[in-house]
Amino acid sequence: MLALLSCSTHKAQSQARVTEGVEGYIYRLSGNQMPMKGKASGGKGKGVVREVWIYWATNTQQTQGNMPLFTRVNGRLAVKVKSDSTGHYQAKLPAGSYSVFVKESNGLFAAETDGQGILNPVKVEKGTVAKRDVRITLDAAF
Description:
Elements: H1 2-15, E1 21-32, E2 46-47, E3 51-56, E4 63-66, E5 69-73, E6 77-82, E7 88-92, E8 96-104, E9 107-109, E10 121-124, E11 129-131, E12 134-141
Parallel strand pairs: 1-11, 1-12
Antiparallel strand pairs: 1-2, 1-7, 3-6, 3-8, 4-5, 5-9, 8-9, 8-10
């Protein structure tokens, strides 16, 4: 019964507008992303459906695997949500600092740090919705 409640919570989050938390898009980039003369670069990518795992701020030392794909995150999970067919996701979260990971078939994707080692960081201020897009670059060449 708990699993059913959990699923309905995720669905409700994606349908109701979040007033405090994080939202953004999950994009997948593939192929050559190098700018070429007379041709635009690859752009932002294609929106994809993915599970988005949001942890309280997590640094690289709290993970196993190699950036950008981690086999294990030893941080505190705040919430899991799912992006829609356009890649849009949103999650209700209290004010605080978080790390946004995207579930891929062979691990959790996070390719950016804040310079202090915090992965895919986002900060939620009280009463606001922070924006955090993620571009999955596993199939892209730069």
